[in-house]
Amino acid sequence: IALLSALGSAGAMAAERSHFENFITRDGAMLKDGDKVFRFAGIHAPELHRIEDDARGPCRADTRGWGQYFRWPTADEQENWIRAMVQTGAKAQRVYVLSVQQAFDKAGGRETHILAPATADGMPRLNEKAMRVYDNMIAEADKQGLRLILPFIDHWWWWGGREQLAAFYHEKPADFYRTDSQTYRAYLDVIRQVITRTNSVTGRAYYDEKAIMAWETGNELEDTNAAFLQQTAAWIKKWAPHQLVVDGTYKKINDFALNDPNVDIVSNHYYTNAENNHPEQVKKDLRSAGGKKAYMVGEFGLLDAQQLNAIMQSIVHSEVDGARAAGGLIWGFRGHRHDGG
User: Of 43, 49, 31, 78, which Cα lies nearest the Cα of 299?
Assistant: First the structure.
């Protein structure tokens, strides 16, 4: 019985062989797959691991007044969506953040990736049910040849972000960016738990998954400071030395990111409310990056097709002192639902 139990555990499971030959690496301002330059473009798919279940209407239990229901995608949905993207020629995809538990989730029947600590001063816990969906996303991406960019925590509150993480410890949202706070300590522990997780489908640790191209510090972390990025990037590299690190900031290229040896990619999101949703922003950011890091446009969109195309053409073709963008993703893609729609 003991032997059967051991054979059935994830730790005893023989890891599958990855469909990828290489991890994606960085060479100056370029990304490489082996000795070949790696660039990507496509439509951003935020919901490969959690669906905004619009068909159910607004969630009245959400006190913020805009509430949504959520559900986990089925394995069939994940397979279908990744297949659809790969068939269009997509080589890499960025998903949305890990969701964080908040007060009204229970009343709305909502589940999240990150659960409140079991004790007042403990660390957040990962929801095993949610993480098995995440496991399958990574496994399916590996099987079909899609690289993933995975951000950790949101600056915003849509899915639960820094504000909800801080609430676990009766701290303020701004404390997320303060490296001596309990919220920041919890953030680092979430990163450790995720990166060192063993994938229940592939049998590989996440840090050994070649499908994971890069870990991103978070989504639109616009208050990122030098101490926050330095400690976070070093922490990610400690656990995931073969995978890339993205400074998940917003609206700017941080000078301190360009000089950080643990940061591989700097990024920006283009939106009209950020006053940067135009083709010229590509060259502006490439000049700011100065060829020191790879550069990508993690999100841009909410424009008409002609304007979207103008920005994408600029991402593909703009060059500053020999440096070009590594990739760009239009917001956004919502997949065909298992039950239709």
Answer: 43
CB 208 within 8 A of CB 199: no
Q: Quick one: pLDDT band at residue 63, thresholds 50, 70, 90?
A: confident
Sheet (strand 30-33) strand order: 24-27, 30-33, 36-37
Mean of the per-residue pLDDT values of the chain:
94
Could you give the residue ranges of the DSSP H alpha helices within the chain? Answer: 2-8, 75-87, 128-144, 162-167, 182-195, 226-239, 255-258, 280-289, 305-317
Q: Residue 125: is its pLDDT beyond 80?
A: yes
User: Predicted confidence band at 1 (pLDDT cuts at 50, 70, 90)?
Assistant: low
Give 43: exposed, middle or buried? Use CB within 10 Å, 0-12, 13-18, 19+: middle
Q: Coil, strand or helix: which one is 194? A: helix
Q: Residues 260, 244: contact at Cβ < 8 Å?
A: no
Cβ proximity of 262 and 23 under 8 Å: no
Query: Cis peptide before 332, with omega less than 30 degrees from 0?
Result: yes
Please state the pTM of the whole predicted model. Answer: 0.95
Tokens standing for 248? 């998940």
Dihedral sign for Cα 176, 267, 111, 15, please. negative
Q: Sorting pLDDT into bands at 50, 70 and 90, what band is 10?
A: very low
To 5 degrees, how large is the angle CA 245–CA 251–CA 257? Answer: 35
Say if CB 216 and CB 29 are below 8 A apart.
Answer: no
* pLDDT attached to residue 64: 78
CB contact set of 8 (below 8 Å; sequence gap of 6+): none
Q: Where are the beta strands (DSSP E) in the chain?
A: 24-27, 30-33, 36-37, 40-44, 51-52, 70-71, 92-94, 114-115, 125-126, 147-154, 212-219, 244-247, 265-270, 294-301, 327-331
